[in-house]
Amino acid sequence: MAAVKIIVDGDACPVKNEIITIARMYAVPVCMVASFDHRLPQIEDVEMVQVDRSSQSADMFIANKVKAGDLVITQDFGLACLAIAKHALTLSFRGEAYTNDNIDHLLERRAESAKRRRQGLRTKGPRALTDEDRKKFQQNLTKLLLEKQEKHEV
């Protein structure tokens, strides 16, 4: 099996530094993908990919790049679903794993919220990222990479 790669939906990702720090500890390559509207600075040892401004460009680039065993980090349920279908691991910016067991429910909830907004109703956005969320993300990313290392996939 090829070595794992971390592919990040970099548009508005609040845990970029945490990803890079942990990935370096395990010598795992990182690819950050963002639209030109979310300019990414060049970072040593991190592949930075800028895609056009259309609404799904970053997601489509990632969906086409991801391979089985890779780790995709995103808040987008649709992208997570595509990554799961390719047998990739997926994590949210809060460290929550997207899996076959929970993705259908998350997609249904997203569709229901979109329907409510089309009806003129207000829906809540995501809550602010807390220090506890960052810690959970770091712990879960570290745990995933440790498990892959033990299986000699890193």
From TrEMBL:
InterPro entries: UPF0178. Pfam families: DUF188. This is UPF0178 protein ACFP56_07330. Belongs to the UPF0178 family. It comes from Paenibacillus septentrionalis. NCBIfam families: PRK00124.1 (NF001095).
